[in-house]
Amino acid sequence: MDFQLNEEQEMLRASARDFLQKECPKQLVRQLDESDEGYSPELWRKMAELGWIGLLFPAKYGGSGGSFLDLVVLLEEMGYNILPGPFFSTVVLGGLPILAVGNEEQKKEFLPRVASGERILTLALTEPSARYDAASVKTTAVVHNGEYVINGTKLFVPDASVSDFLLCVARTKETVNPEEGITIFLVDAKSPGVKCTLLKTLARDKLCEVVFDNASVPKENILGKLDRGWPVVADILQKATVAKCAEMVGGAQAALEMAVTYAKERVQFNRPIGSFQAIQHYCANMVSDVDGSRFVTYKAAWKVSEGLPATMDVAIAKAWTSEAYRRVTLLGHQIFGAISFTIDHDMHLYYRRAKAGEIIFGDGDFQRAIVARELGL
Description:
Blueprint: H1 7-23, H2 26-34, H3 41-49, H4 68-81, H5 87-101, H6 104-115, E1 121-124, E2 140-144, E3 147-158, E4 165-171, E5 182-188, E6 194-198, E7 207-218, E8 222-223, H7 230-265, E9 267-268, E10 271-272, H8 277-305, H9 311-336, H10 346-359, H11 364-374
Helix pairs in contact: 1-4, 4-7, 5-6, 5-7, 7-8, 7-9, 7-10, 8-9, 9-10, 9-11
């Protein structure tokens, strides 16, 4: 079994780490956390010039034709350096669905502009129930005067406040099976009837409430097939879950390295605190969690990248990694002591993201239920 990255992926990892450490220091992360926009247009432009935003798109759409596994490598580095901004929303939640099921006109319209950094996208899926299943989709879209009129409330929509277009998941037909009768619409975020409100969250991750009040969308803006949108949503969620796991692996690795370095340098009772058994066990548990998370994440990512069935692998990766990331940051707090609980300490930045990542796309209990179902239980 070969778990080594290829030469191009190693180069991508190294260049991404160097770039982000230089262009996105923690001071900038804190500034962007406190801003309403949540991202730096200058940094966004530089990322587009590096080809990151169009990494997965074919060359004819302005991209470089990379694989999903390449994206996972890049996202791990973004998690390691805590990159704020709409990259995840635009590429994973917006760009990949258009690439997968968009018609040729939609691909030519959206993907080159996404790859160049001109257009920001996001997915408007979850509603006040905050569930990730088809039954929770209550937002409706009905035909009126040749267009679809959307009504409903989407909650916890990432980066909607800075997005140009929203991929809105709406119910277009009432059916016995909740997975039928769902359609995805490309909605101009600035169109009449769309109201976005930025929410205050623990991780400062720019989640929004988006209210659709008689928002009109032309039929040409249907993404994929009418009434058959849920399989597309399920595919989005699978890829997004693995992508979020990659971010969390990177964050956990950074927290581990910070804690180990501190344990070697901090002297108490005339000896480094890393010489005490309790601290050694903390660090051993942290590295076990990080390495285990990386293994299950890359296993799931490889299967997704190869187009293999990966439902159980993705659920295992999310259930383990999200809780492991939280455990790693909590042990990091124990090693650093009280100072790390202050908002100015870097460990605090990672802990907040660990808590946010634990819930998004389904928490551990949600994922374990999927594993049990896959086992036939």
